[in-house]
Specification:
75 residues
C-alpha cells in the first residue's frame, strides 16, 4: 500500500513552511533584531509550532481519508 500523494504533498508544504520560518528567525538574528538567546527561543518555537500544525493537519486528513462512521442520507 503506497502513501497517498496528498499526504506527501502536505508534508512537504509543512517542511517548506518550517524552513522559511527558521530562515526568518536566522535573518532577524543576522541583522541584529534578535539576540542569540531570543533567536534560540525563536528556533524552538518555530519547530514546535510547525510540528504541531502538521500533526493537526495530519490527524484531520487521516480522519477524512477513511471515515469510521459514514453519513446516512434519509430522503
Amino acid at each position: 500500500m503506497a502513501i497517498p500523494a496528498a499526504l506527501i504533498t502536505g508534508t512537504i508544504c509543512y517542511i517548506i513552511l518550517g524552513i522559511v520560518a527558521l530562515a526568518v528567525v536566522f535573518s532577524m538574528r543576522s541583522i541584529g533584531k534578535l539576540n542569540p538567546d531570543d533567536a534560540a527561543v525563536g528556533n524552538v518555537v518555530v519547530i514546535i509550532a510547525t510540528v504541531s500544525m502538521w500533526l493537526f493537519w495530519f490527524c484531520a486528513w487521516m480522519h477524512q481519508w477513511h471515515p469510521l462512521i459514514s453519513p446516512i442520507y434519509e430522503g
